[in-house]
């Protein structure tokens, strides 16, 4: 039997309006939904591949890929595997990762929790949702909102078995802060993978030498490279640079609170003064204005 999973990280990093938390003073910025979705989906993918499952990313990169394009690609892959191996010899499922929202504000009523969404009257999808939900409820304590039958494009237009995961609420203060927590991302991705493996009838194999969950350290953590932006005006080009360099992105205020040392720190917008203690090397890409800064970043990347 051939096992295939199509993974979807939902919305793009910066193109989709509203897909972010409210402004978080302690970070000096909002958190984009994709900052949780993409790394969590990657942990999910890594666990499945470790068990011999074929995984395809139907929303690659950081741009917001239209829903129709994603489901067209999902159906193309589904049909490809059916033609190649025969419907009786292949099982293909789609899992879409998301973080929910209520009213876009931390004030007032703030629902929380996780849910698994399926197309109405889809028995196979419900079976998959039950398997995944079983493991999602075993980790971080969150409200279990259940399996929700909902008419969504990603599950409706996919011709196979598909589910959509809402793994918290961006406008719930505590859950919003979980979005950047690597241990939480890995936990959710691994739990979803365990559920898919159970649905396939495959046994989960723990790592022989599992990596311990990240613990808060008082000593400085050393990282190779990072980007720091001065304000939201530089956030867009900062995301592009961090994506190209495959490194972390920090707001000036949030970096000040981090216990880490950076080998190379790329400064996008604003002065470099005060950053020397955080890095061995400052790469100043700040211009006279945001357009000049973008030009400097493009020149630095050689584009």
Question: How would you portray this structure in words?
Answer:
With 303 residues, the protein is of the alpha/beta class. It contains nine helices and ten strands. It has two domains: 199 residues, Zn-dependent exopeptidases (Aminopeptidase); 81 residues, Rossmann fold (3-Layer(aba) Sandwich). 35% of the residues lie in helices and 23% in strands. Strands 2-1-3-6-4-5 form a six-stranded mixed sheet, with helices on both faces. Helix 1 crosses helix 6 and helix 3 crosses helix 6.
Overall form: globular
Distance between the termini: 45 Å
Number of domains: 2
β content, as a range? 15-25%
Low-pLDDT runs = 212-220
Number of distinct helices: 9
Helix content estimate: 25-40%
């Amino acid at each position: 039997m051939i096992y295939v999973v199509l993974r979807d990280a939902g919305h793009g990093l910066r193109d989709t309006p509203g897909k972010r938390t409210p402004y978080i003073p302690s970070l000096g910025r909002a958190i984009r939904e994709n900052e949780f979705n993409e790394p969590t989906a990657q942990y999910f993918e890594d666990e499945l591949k470790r068990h011999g499952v074929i995984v395809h990313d139907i929303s690659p990169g950081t741009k917001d890929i239209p829903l129709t394009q994603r489901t067209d690609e999902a159906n193309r892959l589904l049909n490809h595997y059916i033609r190649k191996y025969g419907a009786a010899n292949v099982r293909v499922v789609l899992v879409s990762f998301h973080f929910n929202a209520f009213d876009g504000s931390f004030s007032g009523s703030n629902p929380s929790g996780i849910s698994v969404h399926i197309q109405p009257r889809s028995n196979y999808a419900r079976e998959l949702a039950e398997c995944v939900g079983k493991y999602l409820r075993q980790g971080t304590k969150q409200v279990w909102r259940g399996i929700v039958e909902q008419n969504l494009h990603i599950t409706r237009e996919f011709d196979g078995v598909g589910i959509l995961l809402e793994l918290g609420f961006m406008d719930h203060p505590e859950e919003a802060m979980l979005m950047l927590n690597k241990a939480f991302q890995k936990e959710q991705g691994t739990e979803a993978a365990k559920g898919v493996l159970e649905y396939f009838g495959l046994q989960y194999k723990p790592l022989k030498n599992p990596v311990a969950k990240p613990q808060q350290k008082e000593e400085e953590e050393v990282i190779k490279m990072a980007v720091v932006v001065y304000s939201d005006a530089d956030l867009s080009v900062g995301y592009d640079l961090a994506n190209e360099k495959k490194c972390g992105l920090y707001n000036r205020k949030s970096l000040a609170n981090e216990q880490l040392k950076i080998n190379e720190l790329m400064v996008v917008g604003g002065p470099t003064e005060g950053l020397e203690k955080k890095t061995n090397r400052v790469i100043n890409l700040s211009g006279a204005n945001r357009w000049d800064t973008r030009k400097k970043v493009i020149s630095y990347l050689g584009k």
